[in-house]
């Protein structure tokens, strides 16, 4: 059991939860605690305040699965946050097959049908396994990297040139999203996995990543989101992104579409240039 991480996660989720989120009165101007008080979480989790406080302080025995379930309900954790809590407590989430780098046959067929669009097959750890010509034109060949650099998340925090095609005002949002995705990948794949090796390396190399990792965000990334990409020939392109997962979520098909009329013209111009 990782007592420090477990305690930090409990505290961060408690402080992020407001009284109104669980049907409690705010308590007026005298409430100084950010988020909920420990006694409020204990009551919501149907346990003593002393026992909950010891867990948040990294003391006491390792909690049982029943206790972890009660805390998850009390803190209104999402399913992925609940899985993360169990793992921090030394209770493994349900076993899942390790991610294979061989491409999903179904997603490969879909990628072939999308040759005229920017699309790529990716893994949960940010590895790019295949790209359409228009994706290559927008992002460059992302499949040529080796080792930890196969992961876009790793490159994002260690290679400044990775960020150059994205407006600086968007960097903080991407950093939060990539950190959240890595945490989810670690939850799914467990100890010794490729995502965990990335996290271990980044904690020693990037203060930005270490700070974001300590926030324990799970749901900062969503399947549908916007991305702005700077291209030397067509300028700043506004894109909508959709991620379709294969069975078991071993791979994802990431598809980019133009967010407006200007974006459609830009993609069409770029498509003509590369003969896509």
UniProtKB/TrEMBL annotation:
InterPro entries with a match to the protein in the record: Cro/C1-type_HTH, Lambda_DNA-bd_dom_sf, MLTR_LBD
Q: Which residues form a coiled coil?
A: none
Question: A Pfam family for this UniProt protein?
Answer: MLTR_LBD
Top-rank taxon, per record = Bacteria
HTH cro/C1-type domain: residues covered:
35-82
Name used for this protein in its record: Transcriptional regulator with XRE-family HTH domain
**Organism expressing this protein natively:** Streptomyces umbrinus
């Amino acid at each position: 059991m990782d007592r420090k991480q477990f305690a930090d996660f409990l505290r961060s989720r408690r402080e992020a939860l407001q009284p109104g989120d669980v049907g409690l009165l705010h308590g007026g101007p005298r409430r100084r605690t950010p988020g909920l008080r420990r006694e409020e979480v204990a009551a919501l989790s149907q346990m003593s305040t002393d026992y909950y406080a010891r867990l948040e302080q990294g003391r006491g025995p390792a909690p049982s699965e029943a206790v972890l379930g009660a805390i998850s309900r009390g803190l209104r954790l999402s399913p992925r946050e609940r899985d993360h809590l169990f793992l921090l407590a030394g209770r493994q989430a349900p076993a899942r097959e390790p991610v294979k780098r061989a491409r999903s046959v179904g997603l490969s067929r879909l990628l072939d049908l999308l040759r005229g669009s920017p699309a790529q097959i990716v893994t949960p750890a940010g590895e790019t396994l295949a790209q359409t010509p228009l994706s290559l034109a927008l992002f460059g060949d992302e499949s040529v990297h080796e080792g930890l650099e196969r992961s876009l998340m790793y490159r994002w925090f260690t290679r400044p040139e990775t960020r150059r095609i994205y407006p600086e005002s968007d960097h903080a949002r991407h950093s939060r999203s990539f950190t959240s995705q890595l945490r989810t990948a670690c939850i799914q794949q467990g100890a010794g996995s490729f995502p965990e090796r990335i996290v271990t390396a980044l904690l020693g190399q990037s203060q930005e990543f270490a700070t974001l990792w300590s926030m324990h965000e799970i749901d900062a990334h969503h399947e549908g989101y916007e991305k702005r990409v700077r291209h030397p020939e067509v300028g700043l392109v506004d894109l909508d992104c959709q991620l379709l997962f294969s069975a078991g979520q071993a791979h994802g098909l990431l598809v980019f579409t133009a967010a407006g009329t200007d974006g459609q013209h830009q993609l069409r111009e770029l498509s003509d240039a590369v003969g896509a």
